[in-house]
Amino acid sequence: MVKRLGVYSLARLRELMCTDTLRIGLFVCLPLLVVFPILSIAAEETKAPAKEAQPLAESLKSPDQLVVTKAVEEIKKKGITDESLVPALAHAIKNPDEMVRVAVIDALAQMGPAAAKAVPALTESLKDQDPMVREAATMALFHLSDHAKPAIAMVVERLGDNNPRVRDVAVLTLSKIGTPAVPNLVGALASANEAQRDAAARALARLGAPVVPDLVAALEKGDARAAEGASKALALVGGPAVPALLEKLLRGDQKTSALAEQTLIAIGAPAVPDLVKALKKK
Question: Judging by beta carbons within 10 Å of its beta carbon (0-12, 13-18, 19+), is residue 72 exposed, middle or buried?
């Protein structure tokens, strides 16, 4: 409504309301003298980012890296979140300079949900040759986790990245995405890449009790790698996994029972009270 009225209309409305003292009265007019200027300023501030977006978008497409960098810095400094800038930023992700690419990705991350349409470009950046770019893209998807489901498979691949910082950020991103990432994470427990298996176990463990049934199923039915990975994840989950592990210890087949025992030992003290109770019942 403020946008539609505009500064002139607000001023005119204030004048009309304050001259008709018979109907409105001084006690109404005085507050309006304060409120309407504030609304006018708010209307102008709301329009400001839109006015800035077009020249910034043009600058982002420039072949001159300094021009692109300056535009990105301005977007970040002013906290501009105009969605119309997203296509130009997505284009700038392909800049030949890795530091410019990182800065562009950081700007998209700062925009939050307004940058949702950049998820495909960010997903592509997960394959960048530079580890700083891969890390920045993974972190940007952390900030866009509600829109990042299409990127899950590629983020799971980054769990096996040769850079430990990228792996750690991928763990955080996938655990924030949550339930939609669980099937891919469980699948990664069987990876031939040891770093990827370990990182997948850490990501699953961060999801806690809700993933225990999936991990117990992998413990029981998965191949050797998946079962070991599931055991590691369940040990990290800790206490919430104990009842299900006790069930497999006492009633599972030989392989599953042995893995359940191994996992309970890894959990340690939190498993002891339930373990004593279960053995007494047996």
Answer: buried
